[in-house]
Amino acid sequence: MTHSKFSRRQFLQVTGSALGVSLLAACAPPPGSAPAPAASGGAAPSAMASVSEDNPLWIIVNQDFHPDYNAFIRKHIEDFAKEKNWPMELADMAGFVAGGAAIQKIAAAVSAGDPPDALMHNISTVQMKALGTLENVSDIVEGNVAQYGDVAPLMRKQTYVEDGFYAVPFHGRAGGGYARNDLFEAKGIDLNKIRLYDDLREACLAVSDPSKEMFGWGNTINRSGDGNTMIYRVLAGWGSKWTDETGQYVTMDTQETIDAINWIKETYSDPKWQPMLPPGILSWTDPSNNEAYLAGKVAYTQNAGTVLAKAYFDKNPVAEKTIFHLMCGGPKVPEFNGQGSQNFMLIKGGKNPDAARELIKSFFVEETMNAAFTNARAYAIPSYEKMWDWPIIKDTPQSIAVKPSALDPSAYNGLGWPGPDTPQIASIDIEGIPADMVAAVMTNQSTPEEAVKAAYKRSVEIFKQFGAPGEK
Predict the structure, then answer these.
(1) Which of 179, 188, 192 is nearest to 206 (CA)?
(2) Average pLDDT, whole number, for the chain?
(3) Residue 397, pLDDT above cutoff 50
(4) Is there a single domain that holds both residue 142 and residue 19?
(5) CB 298 within 8 A of CB 216
(6) Which of the listed residues 17, 106, 220, 310 has the most CB atoms within 10 Å of its CB?
(7) Does residue 432 lie in a domain region?
(8) How far apart are CA 181 and CA 331, in angstroms?
(9) In sequence order, what are the residues at sequence separation of 6 or more whose Cβ sits closer than 8 angstroms to the Cβ of residue 258?
(10) 389-398 contacts: CB < 8 A, separation 24 or more?
């Protein structure tokens, strides 16, 4: 199926309607961050010929939630360009801007004939390719694979689209459960043995003490990235599949979806579970669980590894008490995992493609990769299999603990699982259809059966708009 030509309606569905990009001045690295190794090697004549004051190398990077890491990335890029004597524009795309907004910005720049040369981000490769914004980078990835081993299953699934790689996996972004192990151990609970959400909520209830402002369960279902993670995992664990393995049909109108919704409603509304729920959890946004966990008010949350990396950076005492916990499943599907990646993307129509390729390749030397892992310890994890044996990874407990999830062959990719990433499933995610379905039941606007029927109808309509059959 080809996605190269979209109608305006499809473009807005894939990208979302909000637009927000922050272009910030470069900053010096804070004290204590690991230095970026000096780039080496001469520039290819074609790269030198294209970069000029009129056509500076233009790079946009993701402003992530870890200051040391951000400073390291910027410094490496700045040093590389300085050594090559290349004029450069380096911009940050604000970390809290939704993926759709970032995609819309890049697509608009490509359409206008003035795109950046390269992008470092974790936004959807399939959406970017569908909008005709990416160049094939299979040669770079294949070179990395030859040196460092295979790409992790989910990272491959998310960056290899149709006929090749359209993004270069840089490193994995650790994500999963993060728990105050001291609190669970005090109750005689071994979290590593807990693999089902039923058991996890019992454990979180056991460690809760509202009188001391300690709440066990730090997972929202409000419409947000973290809320979607919770909803999608419960759906999958209860055996609900939003789409089939081909990604062409909507398959979520099932009893399994109804059962999953009933479990969610019970967890967030039954008085039995109220002591483990922090005040306002049903209105939390993406930063809320980070803030509550770092403030020592929740014992367990599902999040990116930035929550732990930030704790280490701030010398927050919760850091040493925190363990990584492989996220749970449900009664039908107990185990399904994957780790996504931070990627480099070569933007179509950029004026300096050869220079951008050189810059991307400059990150993939052992000294530079080790510095990346050092600056984002417990957050940046390997994208390539052999790197798991490096001391910086295997000697960091919270990093090596992520390995089973990263190498899980199920390559769990959220709402699209077990199918591939597709523009139509991305549109359903952006429009918040699963979150709307759950919210309708939580607010008693619909029964679970009615909410599932409505979500199914909306999903089929979107699939058809993208040229997929939607239903049989």
Answers:
(1) 188
(2) 89
(3) yes
(4) yes
(5) yes
(6) 220
(7) no
(8) 25
(9) 448, 449, 452
(10) 397/323, 397/324, 398/174, 398/305, 398/308, 398/322, 398/323, 398/324
Cβ neighbours of 422 (radius 10 Å): 24
SS3 195: coil
Banded pLDDT at 17 (limits 50, 70, 90): very low
pLDDT score recorded for residue 49: 53
Tokens of 10: 């499809």
Distance between CA atoms of residues 285 and 370, nearest Å? 33
pLDDT above 90 as % of the chain = 78
Q: Which of 231, 252, 284, 244 is nearest to 432 (CA)?
A: 231
Pairing assessment for the beta strands 118-121 and 380-381 based on DSSP bridges: unpaired
Helices (H), 208-364: 225-237, 255-269, 286-294, 306-313, 353-362
- 353, 378, 406: which is the final residue of a domain? 406
- pLDDT reported for residue 383: 98
CATH number of the domain residue 269 falls in: 3.40.190.10
DSSP conformation class of 243:
B
| Residues 102 and 183 placed together within one structural domain of the fold | no
**Considering the domain boundaries, does residue 413 fall inside one?**
no
| Residues belonging to the chain | 472
- Domain of residue 163, residue span: 8-174+339-406
DSSP for 410-455 reads T---GGGTTS---HHHHHHHHHTHHHHHHHHHHTTSS-HHHHHHHH
Q: Is residue 186 located within the same domain as residue 149?
A: no
CA-nearest of 7, 340, 406 to 169 is 340
308, 179 contact by CB (below 8 A): no
Based on the domain organization, do 192 and 295 belong to the same domain? yes
Closest CA to 401 of 468, 260, 265, 305: 305
Nearest Cα neighbor of 450 from 306, 261, 216, 169 is 261
Does 108 lie in the same domain as 203? no
